[in-house]
Amino acid sequence: MKKFLILLSIILVSSIQANAEITPYTNLSFWNKFNDEILLNNLKHVYQNNHDLKSAVLKVNESKRIVKMSFADELPHIGFQGYVGQIFHSSDEIFGDIEIPDFTEAHFLLPLNMNYEIDIWGKNHLKTKSKKKQLEMIKQDEKAAYIYISSAFAADYYNLIRYDKLIEYQNLLIDLQQQVINSYKIKYEFGTATLSDIELAEKNLTFMKESLQKLSEKQDILKNQLSVLISDKDFENIDRLNFDNINFTLIPPKSIPFQILDNRPDRVKSELDLERIGIDVKTARRELLPKFIINGNLGFNLYSISSSSKFLADLGVVPAWDLFMGGRKIQMLKLQKDKYEIAIQRYEKTILTAIQESNDALYSMKTAEHIKFITNDRLKTDENELSYTKIREDAGTADNLDILQQEQKFITSKMQTVSAKTNEIISAINLYQALGGVDFTEIENL
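^ thats the sequence. predicted structure below, dont judge the formating
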């Protein structure tokens, strides 16, 4: 028995992982456009192992079972309620002029009971339709989970690559700053620098080391976040691309067609919720009408095994109508109508939120793209200034300290370009999420 339970658990987990892997919500064709095979492999691990995604799949299965349970209420209910009893010797029983001394009796009642509410008004079928709408809403929650988890992992992944590079540049700045301090000390010995120059350079060195610690802290935090998203205890290290090998070529669309927002899970869910509550209003209205229930029994009713008349069969229709319940059903109908009005307001707000978030994400990506171009231009300017400074050193109009300071300026510009490029990538991820998992590079073809 224990082996059977273990095998069943393995099959269940494998089934969940398979569902997480083959779901259409993964949208690997979009992530493939980042030209990063390591990212794709990491995302596949996320889809297989992430606990939130597994929970989302299980919630869909749970909702499917609720729909089946609701459909079962539309069908006849057949059960068995038997009775076997024996009255032993007791006092005399008197029935009018008839006296039965030492009354004793055996009773065997063995019927199949059938109960079926005739769904004249379609009330029970409406309840099933409401559960089906709820199932579709849960599926949208599953889709939203895939979009959110994928986007969160990709954003943290590229932020981690960013901090890898920033830490590398920060270490270079610290090395250069140490050289600056040594240059000031040499100048001080020749009387061309002051103690204040050395102290200020050393103070700047402490600021740089402090910045390095903060960068390392953010790097560790991102590693922890990614480990949770990938949800694999045996996954010791997050494989990632080197920043210099990033080949990001996605271009933001000029505009976003309104119909694209129909793909957002929250918008679809709010529409389904509106439809579901509309069905619940109809159901509450039909609860005011009478019910007609068919009752039947088929079996045996006997007082002795040798009795000649054993067979039992009866069938009847029972009308039922709640004439007075203190206004409970009327209030339930009004309650569902209030919920419907609330759902309308929620639906309208969801549309506005979708427009706002998608436009914000689009503007953010366009801005990030422009900032990247500006920082690249500044980097070229600093690179030219470094070259001019080296020429001046050869001509004797600049010294090693000037070159060191210009190299620091150049590396600082490089760090800004790293952040600008990473922000562009993350803004693209945010746009993908804001559009409900739509590949915005294909908008013109949709």
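The mean pLDDT is 89.
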